[in-house]
Amino acid sequence: MFCDGKTGSGSPAPDVMPMDPTALEWLVEQLPQAVVVSDGEGFIRQINAKAQALFGYIGEDAVGHPVELLVPEHSQQSHEAYRRKYLKAPAGRPMGNGRNLWALHRDGRKIPVEVALTPVRLDNSWAIIVSLVDLSAHYELQHKLRQERDFSNAVIDGLPAVFYVLDDSGRFIRWNHNFKRVTGLGGSELTRINAVDLFAGEDQPRVAQAIKRVFETGSGDLEAAMRGASGAYIPHYFTGLRVELNGQPCLTGTGIDISARKQIEAELHHQAHHDSLTGLMNRRAFDELLPHEVERARRYGSPLSLIMFDIDHFKSVNDRHGHEIGDQILCQVADTLELWSSLVYERWQVQAALRSVMDDSSSLVGSVCSMPSMNLTPRSSLSSHS
């Protein structure tokens, strides 16, 4: 993970600057990413807070051990050989060269990572700064997208989704049973409508343009929502190919339901705009929402109020009982705030929640501001943490 056998020019990099050990230790702790520092013999001399969280170690548990402590067991032996080779001519560079790299968590889990190496001089010895980026979320997203793609391919190959043939005016010539099932239309009904009639609003001109493009260029594709048997509009991915049928140009195509992909996109959007602990809107969502609310208030001449709630003595809860209890307190506060369904909340930093009042109700604002302070007790007893 930390070395892959490649070196620089065969000699120590000439542009490596010496660094004071104390300055290096301070710098590593300030870096926003996970960082492990090894000495010239391959032993861990420092592991910053981000790296401790990534690997599940506290500093003293890892310092003094070979860096292979953080390498999956099946790669430890080869990694040691690569490390010794690298230390003969260390040079700053990313690792992996397009390959998947894995680190080892304390509990035995493998973690996909991106790794960069930076050598520095400490007095008369080398130190290697190993910067790591956790790719778990990226891999999870890739996995979800592969699942959706495989699902779509299975529908096309096995079912074969909805199938249709259109003439050059966009009217149906042929269709399969699944097309009738999805749309809820019989054969006589399909012959009387144009393909565009199955779409609504702004999708209609897009569909008409896509059909025209297929006849002009020979192929095309489009995402649009088609009316189903229930009357609901279902997102589909359509493909079209120009063919000749009985001497006349026609469009033959298939359409697959992409609701699953849209749902994943919606879930990812929710994760990007909400705090994972409390479920409240995060700073990013707040920054996007506030300008719209300000503009709406300005447009309609209505007041806009912001209320900040502060959790008293929250730092002392974390200091005395630990962050797990602090997280429980935050969740209880979030549950309490969500009772006020006409307000939008944001978890801001660790101990503050910001509330944006959407309607023009001074009495509501006044009642919220005059709420008595909440006496919160964590869901588990504090006594065991005293």
Which helices and strands, and how do they pair?
Elements: H1 21-30, E1 34-39, E2 44-47, H2 49-55, H3 59-62, H4 73-88, E3 93-94, E4 101-104, E5 110-122, E6 125-134, H5 136-158, E7 162-166, E8 172-175, H6 177-183, H7 187-191, H8 203-217, E9 219-227, E10 233-245, E11 248-257, H9 259-273, H10 283-300, E12 305-310, H11 314-321, H12 323-337, E13 343-348, E14 352-357, H13 362-369
Antiparallel strand pairs: 1-2, 1-6, 3-5, 4-5, 5-6, 7-8, 7-11, 9-10, 10-11, 12-14, 13-14
Helix pairs in contact: 11-12
Textual characterization of the structure:
- α11 runs antiparallel to α12.
- The chain is extended and about 85 Å long.
- By secondary structure, it is α+β, with helices and mostly antiparallel strands.
- The chain folds into three domains: 21-134, PAS domain (Beta-Lactamase, 2-Layer Sandwich), CATH 3.30.450; 142-261, Beta-Lactamase (2-Layer Sandwich), CATH 3.30.450.20; 274-385, Reverse transcriptase/Diguanylate cyclase domain (Alpha-Beta Plaits), CATH 3.30.70.
- The longest helix has 23 residues, at 136-158.
- Residues 7-12, 341-365 and 379-386 have low confidence and may be disordered.
- Helix content is 39%, strand content 25%.
